[in-house]
Amino acid sequence: MRSPSKLRLALEVALALFAFARASANTTDTTDDYPQRPAIVDYSTSEAGNPFVDGWYADPDTAIYQGLYWVFPTSSYPYEEQTYLDAFSSPDLIHWTKYPNILTIKDVTWAKKAVWAPAPAFRNGKYYIYFGANDIQEGEPEQGVIGGIGVAVADKPQGPYVDAIGKPLIGAYNNSAQPIDQDVFIDDDGQAYIYYGGHGHANVAKLKEDMISFDTFEDGTTFKEITPKDYVEGPQMLKRNGKYYLMWSEGGWTGPDYRVSYAVAASPLGPFFGVTGTRILQQDSAVAKGSGHNGVIHVPGTDIYYIVYHRRPLSEDAGEHRVLCYDRMYFKEDGSIEPVKMLVKDDFVDGDMVGWKVHPEGSEGVQIVDNKLGLESHSRSGTIVALDTNFTDQTYDATVILSDSSDDFGTSAGLIFRATNVTSGPTARGYYAGLSTSGRVIIMNLGNGTTVHIEGVDIKPEIEHRVRVSAIGADISVFVDDFASPVLTLRDATYTAGTNGVAVFNTQAKFGNVSIAEGS
């Protein structure tokens, strides 16, 4: 007979495994290629920077396969160039492996363009991708135009995927819903549902066990309309603590009003029709615009959730110029979702500097070294590496390692903020907080050259120093290592908003652990 402690341990293990299975039932495979439980990752955002992969991508959906986190996006280019799908996997949501061309139109004879919004699913030892293609418009199917939602199947999560049925799974408008933007959800009882719809209408249908054909509802219909108020496209279903969360995108996908809302029901079928959603993700004028069309990553066995979505960098105007990002998504005690805050961080541990731009373009000596952003400049005009941000009031943190170089007043390394015209050092406007190994700290108005400085700060070469800039209104303060009190302050209201970056002037330095937050 087992002892009570062993029985208790066995019960705890069983409950943990049950919770894991329920949390990941619709996206987790059961093959033996890799450990099945992914790493528990507890971040506030993408700690190695957003976008978390390079390239123009949109409409991400997610899965957990073979102990890895997977993201399946649309390749964001003009419709005629959207002829393939890529995928990305990661053990830790930091280091990503790209799998190009997991599905191409050569494997789907009826698909010609606009291959959109892949939705992954796993069942019966097979991997499925549901995708939209050809951007069919209302009335076109009746005229013989082929398009809609297809389904492809593979033996591995990275493909190659091939057309499973040789035609669209949903090739017509039902309840006025354009057949695009599908999401597949498998409930705890094993019933699979497909949610989809563009042009302001959303449907749900029941997939059979084979995942390539439909069952009917009790009233004999196949497609049930569930359109919430202000719905445009991009449905996503999530189940948590027995409640069903339907998320969707509102606004125009090319505009700044693109955003995510959600509603909660006791059933996967709603009611959602006509329900006003609660907005949880929208543009932030300091960080990015056009944020929407999301997936969700749930870390199994935890209450850690991330919203994965696309957004458009502030300086980009082309509709296709969208990038993949994720941020933490928190639930309140009552089960409601807190509004998502798009955070700006980069610790460079992924070994890249996606989202940063070098000025002047082509400057040498900019590279990732020992998980730090290394810069080198041999002139007083300097080298600036900047983000695409537009912060006003802010707290800007970073670490700086300076080289042991000869010092004069034109030699320093530090942080750029509220800056414009950073394409070359001499034309930059904004502010610069710099350090030198002689113990000098400066704050400079880059426009008129006004500078305040202090000597005698303990700044050693080849040692990591923590630097903080607090810019609230006209009050600018610089902290070094000890954040209890600033070492230098300046009151200057010349510049109120602009980009953030790092810079070196006539020296070398390495930067890390960048974090920028609005306000104090």
Going by CATH, the architecture of the largest domain would be 5 Propeller
Separation of the first and last Cα atoms: 61 Å
Q: What's the overall geometry?
A: elongated
Count of beta strands: 35
Low-confidence stretches: 1-26, 30-35
Strand content: 35-45%
Helix content: under 10%
CATH class category label of the largest domain: Mainly Beta
Radius of gyration: 26 Å
Indicate the mean pLDDT: 92
Biggest pleated sheet = 8 strands, antiparallel
CATH topology of the largest domain: Tachylectin-2, Chain A
Number of helices: 1
Signal peptide: 1-25
Organism: Karstenula rhodostoma CBS 690.94
InterPro entries: Glyco_hydro_43, Glyco_hydro_beta-prop_sf, Glycosyl_Hydrlase_43_Enz
GO molecular function, one term: hydrolase activity, hydrolyzing O-glycosyl compounds
Overview of the molecule:
The protein is mainly beta and 520 residues long. The chain has two domains: 24-346, Tachylectin-2, Chain A, CATH 2.115.10.20; 357-518, Exo-inulinase, domain 1 (Jelly Rolls, Sandwich), CATH 2.60.120. It is 4% helix and 42% strand. It has one helix and 35 strands. The strands form seven sheets. Strands 21, 23, 24, 26, 31, 32, 33 and 35 form an eight-stranded antiparallel beta sheet that branches. The chain has a seven-stranded antiparallel beta sheet with strand order 22-25-34-27-28-29-30, with no helix packed on it. Strands 9, 10, 11, 12 and 13 form a five-stranded antiparallel beta sheet that branches. The protein is elongated, with a radius of gyration of 26 Å.
